[in-house]
């Protein structure tokens, strides 16, 4: 007896939950050959605002956790990704129209990249911060701290690797994230959100919006409660206008990157979303 198919429903990921868009809108996601794959939620301005509210509420807990704890949580995500490796390979094969070997390589690189960033969680402060030499009886120490809420337009030409490459470094430093997934390849981003929901990542630390980056990004760029804007995947948008809007609220902005090495793993992607706090303390004169 044949069974009915149980197609997967892809929703947004906001505040640890999976809501549909408040607008009720969806759009068709198709394979490289044009075959229907799924309906994805088309996020609205209200969804973007809800995601920022959730991200803001998560900043103190995630940013206040120890670096060692954040590293453990991020490594747990890599463990779960490894356990669902076959699912991600199948999604990438269908969506991008690549061979199984190419899809496998993208998943493997995504997992390895996540592990790489997890390993930096309790180490990058020793590189990005330092004890400063001063002429006087003082200690002067600079320490990197998270910026806060980071809105990210992830690379648009990648199902999984681009998302991981853009989101992971912002999390390492203790920021919370609102990520606008690839419009063409959104399914792996939502599947990754399911991994986040079943790991130890606190709700609101990562929020995933699917739909049109051209529609969503301006609201995030102008939102006063977003502290930084990563436009790594916004090369095809009017990103200069986004940068101008971000300037009105003094956001830190990373401009778009192009090519196969866009969002390549680098310590600079972690420190890009940190603020340096410098502390002075008197030395004992005894």
From TrEMBL:
Domain Aldehyde dehydrogenase: 22-252
KW Oxidoreductase (keyword) present: yes
Segments passing through the bilayer: none
Gene3D superfamilies the UniProt entry points to: Aldehyde Dehydrogenase, Chain A, domain 1
One GO MF term: oxidoreductase activity
InterPro entries, alphabetized: Ald_DH/histidinol_DH (IPR016161), Ald_DH_N (IPR016162), Aldehyde_DH_dom (IPR015590)
Keywords for this protein: Oxidoreductase
Entry protein name: Aldehyde dehydrogenase
């Amino acid at each position: 007896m044949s069974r009915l198919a149980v197609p997967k429903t892809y929703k947004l990921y906001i505040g640890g939950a999976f809501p549909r868009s408040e607008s009720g809108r969806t759009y068709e996601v198709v394979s490289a050959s044009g075959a229907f794959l799924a309906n994805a939620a088309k996020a609205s301005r209200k969804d973007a605002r809800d995601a920022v509210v959730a991200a803001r509420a998560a900043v103190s807990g995630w940013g206040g956790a120890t670096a060692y704890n954040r590293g453990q949580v991020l490594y747990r995500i890599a463990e779960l990704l490894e356990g669902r490796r076959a699912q991600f390979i199948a999604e990438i094969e269908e969506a991008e129209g690549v061979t199984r070997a190419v899809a496998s390589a993208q998943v493997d690189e995504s997992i390895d990249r996540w592990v790489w960033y997890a390993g930096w969680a309790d180490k990058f402060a020793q590189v990005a911060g330092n004890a400063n030499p001063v002429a006087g009886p003082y200690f002067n120490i600079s320490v990197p701290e998270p910026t806060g809420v980071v809105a990210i337009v992830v690379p648009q030409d990648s199902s999984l690797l681009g998302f991981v490459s853009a989101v992971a470094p912002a999390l390492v430093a203790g920021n919370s994230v609102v990520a606008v997934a690839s419009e063409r390849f959104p399914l792996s981003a939502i599947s990754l959100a399911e991994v986040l929901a079943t790991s130890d990542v606190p709700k609101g630390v990562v929020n995933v919006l699917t739909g049109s980056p051209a529609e969503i990004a301006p609201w995030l760029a102008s939102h006063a409660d977003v502290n930084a804007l990563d436009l790594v995947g916004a090369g095809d948008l009017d990103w200069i206008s986004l940068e101008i809007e971000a300037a009105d609220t003094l956001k830190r902005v990373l401009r778009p990157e192009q090519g196969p090495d866009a969002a390549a793993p680098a310590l600079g992607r972690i420190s890009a979303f940190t603020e340096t706090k410098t502390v002075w303390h008197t030395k004992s004169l005894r």
